[in-house]
Design goal:
ph1033 like fold; 9-stranded mixed sheet; Restriction Endonuclease; 497 residues; 7-stranded mixed sheet; alpha+beta; 29% helix; flat; 3 domains; single chain
Length: 497
């Protein structure tokens, strides 16, 4: 995953010309020497010996061990401004010909003259503090939303993308004046005659951002543009980033949001989620809200145009909202009318440019629905998790005949106890293995080693996901195993539900 960095090429940028000429970015602390084989612990020891602080050691560790090829970097100095924006192209080097020798090669894609000052940019104060003052330091990591905001202010097209996605798409959603929380009654007035929304007085997308209706942390919803592409998305078995636009009553096209890592539901998943909607009373609420705008209630779950009430799921934290972002007439999006998934890259190539710029992440409160786990308190639980758990148990019964195999005991998804060992499995239903690892790791370590739990048998730990980890992810797992002596493995359960 791409990371984003702000690095100063020397105090007040006094080494910028040298680093620009050498196609690199470099930092000081040369007294440490070549640090190619130093991990964070070794760097701290070396810095302490040389009289540097732990903060210095952390900055060196960021530069040497955490920056990766492909990461984005902005070179700046608080007093002078921003020198350039580029992409890291090389591994760490100790380049003795440079004034500052800890270095990495960079492709500088945008070099500024004159230099934009930090103060002149319309950035949040928290972001500006990463560029000047005592808190700025030599190197600071920016989050993606900060990077997007910065590059927008600098007039640079934002080009980072998710390597695990099938590509960014864009689709139209029905107009709604209630921020897609409930039917607003606008569909019949604004949609063309003979369309689904006009005939029935509502669109299935009108609950798209009903944030309190969640199952296992996921927002299950509907997107008309996904319908025609469902088979292709299900075959790809990868998440997709989808940008949304709507057509206002005055016919202007407005960007609504980008939802990252949207997952398409197959029929079985959609039906299972709908059962939970009905159990929790959400489906009944949907029917009542359709009735309140004089819509056709029977169309919600009985329409040839929409085979399922729900066809996607996503996480609320992956929603990036736009505010009053209207599309110019010369933008390729301005010619789109249909409720289908358009390939964003093709639109950009066709027009040569685009007005699409992601802005800021939306935040919303979470009011959780409940599905009950056996023998535990009421917690959220998503249908895909249930399918994966059932399949894992079936496989384990074949692998460990005669063993004690128990689901949902002491909050553990599945545990296997043999005469010689205890094996714990933590399941996450996300498509991206990195997300699976991130979400499962803390839980499974707590379940295995937290002090109230006494284990008389040796323990093995398995993180369970739907897709195989990438070589980079596997390298990370191997590092955890070696560095911390963790009995940790990753297991893939093929998703054929």
């Amino acid at each position: 995953m791409t990371k984003f960095w702000r690095i100063s090429p020397g105090e007040d940028g006094f080494l910028w010309n040298e680093q620009k000429a050498n196609g690199c970015i470099a930092i000081g602390w040369d007294e440490i020497g070549d640090a190619k084989n130093m991990d964070k612990k070794a760097l701290r020891a070396a810095c302490s010996k040389a009289g540097f602080s732990s903060i210095d050691a952390n900055q060196l560790n960021n530069f040497i061990n955490l920056i990766s090829i492909g990461d984005k970097v902005v070179a700046s100095a608080s007093a002078k401004g921003i020198f350039a924006v580029g992409t890291i192209t090389g591994d760490y080097e100790f380049d003795r010909k440079l004034e500052y020798k800890h270095s990495r090669k960079v492709k500088w894609e945008k070099i500024f003259s004159p230099l934009p000052s930090i103060v002149s940019l319309n950035l949040p104060v928290s972001t500006k503090f990463k560029f000047y003052g005592r808190s700025s330091r030599t190197i600071r990591e920016l989050d993606e939303s900060e990077w997007i905001h910065l590059t927008d202010e600098l007039g640079i097209e934002h080009t980072t993308s998710r390597p695990d996605s099938v590509g960014q798409k864009i689709t139209r959603i029905t107009f709604n004046s209630q921020n897609w929380q409930r039917p607003s009654g606008d569909a019949r007035k604004n949609e063309a005659p003979n369309t689904y929304a006009h005939k029935n007085g509502f669109g299935h997308e009108e609950w798209l951002f009903r944030s309190e209706w969640k199952i296992g942390g996921w927002r299950y919803s509907f997107m008309q543009g996904v319908n025609d592409s469902r088979r292709k998305l299900l075959e790809a078995n990868k998440p997709v980033d989808i940008s949304l636009f709507t057509i206002e009553p005055d016919k202007r096209r407005r960007l609504v949001a980008t939802i990252k890592a949207v997952e398409c539901l197959d029929d079985r998943q959609a039906e299972a989620a709908l059962k939970i909607f009905k159990k929790n009373g959400w489906f009944k609420t949907m029917l009542e809200e359709i009735k309140s705008v004089n819509g056709n209630v029977s169309a919600l779950n009985n329409s040839p145009e929409t085979s399922n009430v729900l066809n996607i799921r996503f996480r609320s934290e992956n929603v990036i909202s736009y505010h009053d972002e209207f599309i110019s007439e010369d933008d390729p999006i301005a010619g789109l009318n249909r409720y289908m998934l358009y390939d964003f890259a093709k639109l950009e190539r066709k027009a040569g440019t685009s007005s699409m710029r992601r802005r800021k992440e939306a935040s919303s409160g979470v009011v959780r629905g409940k599905v009950f786990r056996r023998a535990t308190e009421a917690v959220e639980y998503d249908p895909k998790h249930i399918f994966l758990q059932a399949k894992l148990i079936a496989e384990l019964k074949k692998e460990f005949p005669g063993a004690r195999i128990v689901p949902e005991e002491d909050f553990i998804d599945v545990s296997v106890q043999t005469e010689t060992e205890l094996i714990l499995y933590e399941i996450k239903s996300d498509l991206e293995p990195r997300t699976v690892i991130r979400q499962a790791l803390g839980q499974i370590l707590e379940y295995a080693f937290h002090s109230p739990r006494e284990r008389k048998l040796p323990v093995r730990l398995f993180i369970v996901g739907r897709n195989a980890p990438s070589p980079e992810d596997q390298k990370y797992l191997n590092l955890l195993k070696a560095k911390f002596s963790l009995p940790l493995e990753y297991r893939v359960i093929a998703d054929d539900s």
